[in-house]
Amino acid sequence: MADMQLDEIPTLSLLYKLSRIPLDADHPSPCEPNAAYNDKISIIKADITSLVVDGIVNAANEALLGGGGVDGAIHRAAGPDLVRECRGLNGCEAGDAKITDGYKLPSEKVIHAVGPRWYALSPEDAEAKLKSCYRRGLELAVEHDLKSIAFPAISTGVFSYPNVKACNDALSEVRKFLDEGKGDGLQRIIFCNFLQKDQDIYYKHVSKHFPPVPAPAPEETNAAAKTSTDEADIAAKLPDPPTSEPKDPEEPSAKKQKTEAAADDLVAVDKDEAKGTPKGEL
User: Which PROSITE patterns does the protein's record reference (predicted)?
Assistant: First the structure.
């Protein structure tokens, strides 16, 4: 799969202009519309290991040594040097994150965020830890002067965090971080979904947290016409999303890197292959 450049990833502002985001007129957002925020936020259905951004977030486990789903995919794509660096980090607690180099990934850095296991905690504790994952990811990005960062749907796979709640918790924490003025140095915050159901959920709920800016006055429309045309060209060139998930690292296979011609299809499957039940993010 070809790498995806940052200028190929649509902003929320563009998605609103193209009417890709549904709006609920009966339930207006309590949040103030902010054009600068909408120019920072992106939602894309893609393989996160293909994004050419400053940093991607890994939905890791406490050991930080790789696993299934996106965790295994990132470790395979980055190569063995990633796990060697992770061994020196002495693990990570749920709700926290640690940063490493990206090695063979197109992203410069990987931020390993350990999400909560929904079934092991009270709903309140799980929510606090998931929000902390997104905050710690953003804090590390700012601390290391990263300008673009991509998040997967943390904890929504085998960690069983409800997908709709995970989406709203992630969006609300990112909005809060920006409202506090802590994300001014970030140019792009990407919610990268591998599963169509997560993409649909983000499209449905994002306007609650990042509502569209009202349409400009008629005299401003002509000045914006060329920009709109350029943005439409970007949208038309968006690559097709992946159709399969990353392979479980314990599944016997030729572990070739994504940069080789015969790269893995990055499919994450249940260890009981007879059932064929797919896995998502940790």
Answer: MACRO
